[in-house]
C-alpha cells in the first residue's frame, strides 16, 4: 500500500484552493465535483472543510495515520496532484513532513519506500491471508486468496 494510503495528514492540514475551471467536465479526471467545494474569491474555490480551522477535506475517507484515501482521487484538484509524499521518487517534501508532524506522525523514511517497493513488486501474484469466521465462534478458517 502506498504510504499516503496510511496517512492523509495533508488532507487535514492544508487549505485546498484552486481555480474554478477545475470543476469543468473537461478538467483532469472529469473535474472536481463542484458540490464538494466552497467559494474562496472571484476566481478560486476551496475543497469544503479546508477553508477554516480545523482543516479536514470533505473528500478524505478514513482516519489520519491509519487507513485513508481520497474519495475523488482521479478528479482531485491540481494542488493535490502536485503534493508529493516525502521521499517519493527520491524527492524531499517539506509540505508532507509538516503535515505528518502536525498529526504526530513520523516523517517518511527510505525504509518506508523500500518496504512499499518490495510489496509492489509482488503485485497481483501476492497472496493475502483472509480469515473467515465460521458458525463456530471459536474456529477460524484460513484461505489464500489473490490480493
Structure notes:
The protein has 147 residues and is an alpha+beta fold. Helix content is 18%, strand content 20%. It has a three-stranded antiparallel beta sheet with strand order 1-3-2, with no helix packed on it. A hairpin with a 4-residue loop joins strand 2 and strand 3. It is globular. The protein starts with 16 loop residues before the first strand and ends with a strand.
Helix content: 10-25%
> Which descriptor suits the 3D outline?
globular
Per DSSP E runs of 2 or more residues, the count of β-strands stands at: 7
Radius of gyration: 19 Å
Strand order of the largest sheet: 1-3-2
Which residue ranges are poorly predicted, with pLDDT under 50 across at least 5 consecutive positions?
125-147
Compressed to H and E, one letter per element, the order equals EEEEEHHHEE
What's the N-to-C terminus distance? Answer: 11 Å
Tell me which oligomeric state these chains represent: single chain
Average of pLDDT: 86
Q: What share of residues are in beta strands?
A: 15-25%
> What's the number of helices?
3
Amino acid at each position: 500500500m502506498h504510504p499516503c494510503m496510511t496517512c492523509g495528514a495533508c488532507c487535514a492540514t492544508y487549505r485546498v484552493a484552486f481555480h474554478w475551471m477545475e470543476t469543468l467536465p473537461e478538467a483532469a479526471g472529469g473535474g472536481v465535483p463542484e458540490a464538494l467545494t466552497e467559494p474562496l474569491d472571484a476566481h478560486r474555490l476551496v475543497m469544503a472543510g479546508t477553508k477554516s480551522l480545523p482543516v479536514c477535506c470533505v473528500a478524505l475517507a478514513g482516519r489520519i495515520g491509519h487507513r485513508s484515501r481520497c474519495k475523488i482521487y482521479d478528479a482531485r484538484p491540481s494542488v493535490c496532484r502536485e503534493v508529493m509524499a516525502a521521499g517519493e521518487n527520491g524527492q524531499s517534501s517539506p509540505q508532507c513532513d509538516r503535515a505528518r508532524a502536525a498529526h504526530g506522525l513520523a516523517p517518511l523514511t527510505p525504509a518506508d519506500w523500500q518496504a512499499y517497493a518490495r510489496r509492489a513488486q509482488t503485485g497481483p501474484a501476492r497472496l493475502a491471508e483472509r480469515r473467515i469466521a465460521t458458525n463456530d465462534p471459536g474456529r477460524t478458517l484460513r484461505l489464500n486468496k489473490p490480493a
